[in-house]
């Protein structure tokens, strides 16, 4: 109730000299980990991704498993390492590494597409693939074959299709593998802060290291913040939160509220938009759920411009163009945005932003490395370094898809599991659409991020997880702005989070 | 500093517009914080004269009490409470610390926009208020605050001519010394007509500080029936009667602002279009070939038309809010026509000029000026209405010139 004296602008014109604040800046090094070549081929098989993933992660799991199960004995039997899934012999206590595959009757099946023509009405989309009657079969596979896993140990571990694990147990008379214990790769090693970018304060790296240690011990906030927002939901038909978006703009520009707040806002050095800036078109959604877009396509040839509503994109462009003079923006596409739908989603094309594209990347004329754009349209998932911290972010599809596999509602838990699987999109390419990679599996995490955020989640949540080697990861679920009116601020020194919530009554 | 009172009185009391602090700061070129104070002062003075004349909305920020903050937690709590009540020993103490923990877990800065009427109640929900200021003033209480977002849309148009990088500090926006922007060849095709419009409004009976552009229509601002205003005879009459109110006269730009479309159905547009089509036919039979050729020519630039097509179908809220401003816009349009007349006073007033050739040329297009054309050919063109206006202009030296005004829009 009490209003602080400075914050009260309910007064007559004072004629004071009103200050205007300069915006704080942070170092920013985006990475192209998830960028695809200009020329994309879609004729490859998806199977290669699994083998690449297995090859990449096998050594890591091996190490963990060897440490844990070396000379492990049950009764008088010592655990043996078995190279391939098919080499498992009945009755032998052994451990083996492979990829989890969960066979779920409710999972979308490619053969359903053929059935679809005979459907009168399509079944509604499922929230979970999990079968209520326990018909799901968990299997372990590698390049040699598959093995069905059973046992109570499975219930304690979060498992989805595509994650690489080591299982220890024995094959029973039915040919099923009774699991005693499961090991996952665990958190990858974490790079030091300021690995890609140089520390702005002092150039001598040794000093920096010492400072780092000091910071680790007592992190001091200098007030600089990173703002993350998701699910802005610009819509052509629904104006129910347009004023909230205006308030957000005014807040970020430092126009709303009192000078004290404005000064705090001036320390927000970057805005990250984590997907779903455009609201799904109502018609389009009904098409998608029915899954019968084909009929419409048959009637019309070529591009049907009348079906396209440019208003949301226009408003979004205006929103960006208003903020950009004051605030650099990193823009990740999301499921509903005008980008390719399969992961990794490529940056939204700058032609979509007639007003704000002038802030885009300035092509360097003399062949020097060009600076990242002031408006940086990036991939989803995206990786980069902000103020020295390694940041990994996605538009939310990866978590949403893992969510369908497991009983748990704990989305932070799923994010933690992803870090431990060392894979930020394990269910791709099974149920999460993905580009068919051939030579590289970019979803495997080679190093541990400091900040891992996921957009378009139902509510804000955050946690700090710690790894055995001292890795510290700040996990953040960013709520949909259109529904919650919330944005997340992350302190760029302490990685503490706070929320700004806008309400219009 | 007293100028703001004139401006606010004109905008709020006379034009019955909603004014936000941002709009005021842009219009008067003052710092936003100063604008907030001006709004407060104006509100206080006006309501002390006559209470309840002006309605304000306030922006509050601060921390909300624990019960009010966690929408999600609040849902769970009733269950918990019920459960607890059956075991009364812990009921009083248990839920409390949980909530506190949640609130402490993540700091939440709440920012609420509230009506004057709800202010007391919302204030009581706050535990601590960091800041409060007047957000907007309006003559009538707002049912749906979302309407205010239209005011912000107006703001965009107002600032369209300014370079945002230069004007930031003037309004108190946080400036960024590191901003990078492409310089040369930075074109902004879709918004191109807007700056031109702003420049085209110099002559007004307004006080000098009063920025004319708040009058200006956003892309959505035009009445859908704009074509009717091109009916010239009645228009001139009306224009004269409303000329006093209407202080922002607009000059015709070769590309008139895009017209607003009501969210009308395809059928509706057909219903409207049919009779006009017929009328057009009868008219065009009488039209000289030169004119019909001129009519045809703009049909070619499909790409331009496409862009015009993309005028946003306005949301319902916007339509509602614009109802009021519609009148002004009609007036503006009429004024626009009026201006054209003044450009060549010779034409309508002195029909009895001796040179016959000129005379005929002048007379001929006049009756067909209000012209609606509906191109029905081809599915995609369906429903597009093309309003074309043609004018013969004779300048002081006696040279003849033609002035075409074409505007097209689609209704679907």
TrEMBL record, chain A:
Localization per Swiss-Prot or TrEMBL: Nucleus
Enzyme class, first EC level, given as a word: transferase
GO CC annotations on file: delta DNA polymerase complex
Main location: nucleus
Alphabetized GO MF terms: DNA binding; DNA-directed DNA polymerase activity
Reactions that this protein is recorded to catalyse: DNA(n) + a 2'-deoxyribonucleoside 5'-triphosphate = DNA(n+1) + diphosphate
GO biological process: DNA repair; lagging strand elongation
One Pfam family, short name: DNA_pol_E_B
Residue ranges annotated for the DNA polymerase alpha/delta/epsilon subunit B domain, each copy included: 227-462
Keywords: DNA replication, DNA-directed DNA polymerase, Nucleotidyltransferase, Nucleus, Transferase
Domain DNA polymerase delta subunit OB-fold: 45-182
Listed Polar residues bias regions: 192-205
Region (Disordered): 1-25, 188-212
Known EC number: 2.7.7.7
Family stated for the protein in its record: Belongs to the DNA polymerase delta/II small subunit family.
Entry-linked PANTHER family: DNA POLYMERASE DELTA SUBUNIT 2
Name by which UniProt lists this protein: DNA-directed DNA polymerase
Organism for this UniProt entry: Amylocarpus encephaloides
TrEMBL record, chain B:
GO molecular function: DNA-directed DNA polymerase activity
Origin species: Amylocarpus encephaloides
Pfam family, one: CDC27
Example of a GO cellular component annotation carried by this entry: delta DNA polymerase complex
One BP annotation, GO: DNA synthesis involved in UV-damage excision repair
Xref: PANTHER family: DNA POLYMERASE DELTA SUBUNIT 3
InterPro entries assigned to the protein according to its UniProt record, in alphabetical order: POLD3, POLD3_sf
Cellular localization per UniProt: Nucleus
Polar residues: compositionally biased ranges: 243-253
Compositional bias per record (Basic residues), positions renumbered to this chain: 379-392
Keywords annotated in UniProt: DNA replication, Nucleus
Superkingdom of origin: Eukaryota
Composition skew (Basic and acidic residues), residue ranges: 323-332, 364-374
Biased composition range(s): Acidic residues: 353-363
Protein name, UniProt field: DNA polymerase delta subunit 3
Positions of region (Disordered): 166-394
